[in-house]
Amino acid sequence: MKRILLHLGLPKTATTTLQHHLFQRLHDEGQINFLGKVVAYDENGKSYFKNNTGEIIRKACEGKVSANISARIDELLVKDMLNVFSDEGIMVFYPGQVNLPLADKIRNLHNLLSDYEVKVLMTIRQPVDYIFSLYVQLHAKFYRTIKTMDTFEKYTEHFFNPALEIDQESVFMDRNIKLVSNFFDTKILIFEDIKHDPTYFSGQIASALKVDKVLVEKIIVGQHENIKKGKTGGVYSQRVISLSDLKKWVVGKTQKCQKIHGVLKFLYRTEKLPFQRLTRLKVAEKATFHKKPARALASKLLNMTAIPASFQADEFGISRNKLRDYGYIVEQVTNEK
After folding, report:
1. At a CB cut-off of 8 Å and minimum separation 6, what does 75 contact?
2. Potential cystine with 12: which of 133, 232, 243, 266 (Cβ 3.0-4.6 Å)?
3. How would you label 178-215 residue by residue, b for 16+ Cβ within 10 Å and e otherwise?
4. Beta carbons within 10 angstroms of residue 51's beta carbon
5. Which of 335, 32, 34, 2 minimizes the C-alpha distance to 177?
6. Cα-Cα-Cα-Cα dihedral of 98, 109, 111, 185, to 10°?
7. pLDDT by residue (tens digit) across 133-177?
8. Band of residue 335 on the pLDDT scale cut at 50, 70, 90
9. From the centroid of its chain, how far is CA 203?
10. Alpha-carbon distance 33 to 36, whole Å?
11. Three-state SS string across the chain, please?
């Protein structure tokens, strides 16, 4: 039976480091069959995929593929090698887009891959740190355009106002663990171990991949991606400003008039004209400073999102002492809206 390791993040838990520097390297060396994803950036800051051959898996679990794709997935997998697919975006809600509930996505994944031996690798992070870090990551592309969420303080109101929806299900670590473990054989890692117990963290990944743990630890300790610039009390998010924003505006304005839209699309795609090249050029960068939550707000958020003291960590191979030491657990929490 073909074997698959699903690495589902969470986002902001060294996923990019693993994708770029470990999974892709092992793939290039012929030790695993890595189906992606690896996101890279050109000199103008525009992102592109170096490797995302398993993209169809994410699209299918998100309900964006209606046809039967079993044969296409089977063709991607190698019989006598561990097949690894890594996409932390499966766990995330993207503002302004149509998103399936997380339970539906995980159920779809299970049904999609039911013919294979599947294990899941998932890393969790202290809830308040995770909420803040994920918000900063998504701010430039999403939250800055939504007036009710364009600052972290406004965003957190969604956690405390019963009339508003919390748009990120992934912030509830205990629910994530229980949900994924209900469908898959799941290994849970703790992000803070990268700093405080890197040998253990790396050893668990090496065991899942059946590779040298010394190599894994060297990569985990020595390579860091997507580290935000900061100063005392906060960090910056960066937004690349390019003519692609103008392109999106023109597309939006002309879509109702198909003749004009069709002509502009033809001209844009004509290789002899410079429009595609121009829209990729970086015009400027804009940095926005995000102040870390004050102690009172952090405490309030943790009360909403912390792992309950009744959580049976041992059932999932997690150290209860570490969860307490790293600030995941408070004695009494209310994580129901």
Report:
1. none
2. 133
3. ebbbebbebbbbbbbbbeeeeebbbebbbebbebebeb
4. 20
5. 335
6. -150
7. 999 999 988 899 888 899 999 999 988 988 877 788 999 999 999
8. low
9. 22
10. 9
11. CCEEEEECCCCCCCHHHHHHHHHHHHHHCCCCEECCCEEEECCCCCEEEEECCCHHHHHHHCCCCCCCCHHHHHHHCCCCCCEEEECHHHHCCCCCCCCCCHHHHHHHHHHHCCCCEEEEEEEECCHHHHHHHHHHHHHCCCHHHCCCCCCHHHHHHHHHCCCCCCCCHHHCHHHHHHHHHHHCEEEEEECCHHHHCHHHHHHHHHHHHCCCHHHHHHHHHHCCCCCCCEECCEEEEEEEEECHHHHHHHHHHHCCCHHHHHHHHHHHHCCCCCHHHHHCCEEEEEEEEEECCCHHHHHHHHHHHCECCCCCHHHHCCCHHHHHHCCCECCCCCCCC
Burial of 232 (0-12, 13-18, 19+ CB in 10 A): exposed
- Write the CA distances from 175 to 27, 43, 102, 182, 333, integer angstroms: 32, 40, 10, 11, 14
Structure tokens at 23: 């999974």
Backbone angles phi, psi at 136, to 5 degrees: -60, -40
Highest mean pLDDT among 236-240, 248-252, 257-261: 257-261
Contact yes or no for 36/216 (Cβ under 8 A) = no
CA 57 – CA 50 distance, rounded (Å): 17
Q: Give residue 331's identity as a one-letter amino acid code.
A: E
> How many residues does the structure list for the chain?
337
The tokens 């860091």 sit on which residue? 224
- What end-to-end distance do the CA atoms of the chain give, in Å? 42
321 touches 192 (CB < 8 A):
no
Q: How many CB atoms lie within 10 A of CB 123?
A: 26
Identify whether the C-beta of residue 201 lies closer than 8 Å to the C-beta of residue 317: no
Q: What is the pLDDT of residues 245-257, one digit of tens each?
A: 677 778 878 888 8
pLDDT value at 265 more than 60: yes
